[in-house]
Amino acid sequence: MLTLHQIFLFIYKQLLCQSSMGNKITSRKEDYSKWYNDIVINADLAENSDVRGCMVIKPYGFSIWELMKKELDKMFKDTGHENAYFPLFVPKSLFEAEEKNAEGFAKECAIVTHHRLINDPKKKGKLIVDPESKLEEELVVRPTSEAVIWKTYKKWIRSYRDLPILINQWANVVRWEMRPRLFLRTSEFLWQEGHTAHSTKDEAMSECLLINNIYAEFAEKFMAMPVLKGSKTKAERFAGAEETLCIEALMQDGKALQAGTSHFLGQNFAKAFDVKYADKSGKLDYVWATSWGVSTRLVGALIMTHSDDKGLVLPPNLAPNQVVIIPMIKSDESKGKIEKICNKFFTDLKTKGVRVKIDSRENFSLGYKLNDYELKGVPLRIVIGENEIKNDEYEIFSRDDLNKIKSSSKNLLNDIIKSLDNVQNRMLSNAKKRLKNNTYEVSSYDEFKELIENQNGFISTGWDGDDNTEEAIKKDTKATIRCILENIEDKDVKCIYSGKPAKHKVIFAKSY
């Protein structure tokens, strides 16, 4: 005879399971945009905040960003870079010093004009801006830090002995966004921004290339996301840069996502802030600069590169939990034995550096847990119950391909570690195949327009280097030049639009 408590617990578990199963993910074919948003919300990564255009990054989503940050930070430090921090607020006069940069970000800036609120004498409990607290100079809320950093570098740099300066900072920035999307475009987002100073142009260009290669390596090695490397056209460059290198990724809907940029700033900011150094002969010259960055947009890229209609799919290298162990306890008699086996596997995996979790929650059904970890994209899961222990046969479930392999207690540790490598490699291989299958070489503008309109993807073709040609194609098709490809021989290639000899081989695509 079941007690009232047992009946209530049974009903509660069933309701939880049904609630989980109700978290339906819209299919990619039905509505790709809603599919993306469903995954962000239902996988518990982030949610919209009360401030329009801003987001709350929830613990699970932030854990992914922390892993990204950890690996990138190591890559930067391994190449001689150091972390520092600079103010959130930039005096308007500093921001205006480099005209192209100021003009490029002006429409996205948030401005602080006053520094105090006071009680409204007409409405009790309400606050108003104190008109007497107006700032002598308005402050721009950091959209990017070149201005405040180069004002600081003027104090730090006197001679060639002070160079190079290789600084990175992890920070938040504000760029007022009219059409926000969680992770992809928000008014406030997290990022890293590197700012370096050099004594020669060649050294600065080498720095630019180094960082772009680091971004590409990170994307492939950790995100399992292949990218194309190249440079931006003049129209697509960072405001104030003389050259912008980039990595471009292809999402499952055939649209491009700019995943990282590395900018050669020339001497523009050094001249704007009068930053000079004395070389070995004592001659004064302006220093050469770079800036570079990636942001929480990478979390969005990760989602759209790998996830499916069941939910999030995470590569093991960036999964907060690489393995989840789920005890399946049906009786009090078996509980101790099952928990002992689970704890042993947990300890063994932890010792090997695997991020592993035991889900021993008793108020959630097995069905709920299986669905939840599938939704959250945990790479591997193992259910351990009486039968598994009795038969010494354990199933390792892989989230990426939804397949299972069998293992024994003797081989389980090695099989799990091997499976994690297999999942990471398989996800990269599949993403590379999709990139290859959705990259098209065209020589006819009619074919170009048909692909852009009906299929999307990366289109490789010739461009005559004319800004007017680039703008005409963008206006006609909404496709932009994502990057000028590296190391491409352009002989005998014609411009897709004008028919003139091509100056560059480029990638066109619609983008986020």
The chain-level mean pLDDT equals 94
* SS class: alpha+beta
Largest sheet descriptor: 11 strands, mixed
Unreliable spans:
5-21
Quickly count the helices: 15
Order of adjacent strands in the largest pleated sheet: 3-9-10-16-13-12-11-24-25-23-22
* Percentage of residues assigned to helices: 25-40%
What gyration radius follows from the Cα positions, in whole Å?
27 Å
Q: What is the number of beta strands? A: 25
> In what range is the share of β-strand residues?
25-35%
Distance N to C terminus: 60 Å
Form type: globular
What topology emerges from the helices and strands here?
Blueprint: H1 4-21, H2 32-42, E1 46-48, E2 55-57, H3 59-78, E3 82-83, E4 89-91, H4 92-95, H5 99-105, E5 110-114, E6 117-119, E7 127-129, E8 134-141, H6 146-156, E9 165-174, E10 188-198, H7 201-221, E11 228-231, E12 243-250, E13 256-266, H8 268-272, E14 276-278, E15 284-286, E16 288-295, H9 297-306, E17 323-327, H10 332-351, E18 356-358, H11 366-375, E19 380-384, H12 386-391, E20 394-398, E21 404-407, H13 412-437, E22 439-441, H14 445-454, E23 458-463, H15 467-477, E24 480-485, E25 504-509
Parallel strand pairs: 3-9, 17-18, 17-19, 22-23
Antiparallel strand pairs: 1-2, 4-8, 5-8, 6-7, 9-10, 10-16, 11-12, 11-24, 12-13, 13-16, 14-15, 19-20, 20-21, 23-25, 24-25
Helix pairs in contact: 1-11, 3-7
Salient structural properties:
512 residues, alpha+beta, 11-stranded mixed β-sheet, 5-stranded mixed β-sheet, 15 helices, 25 strands, 26% strand
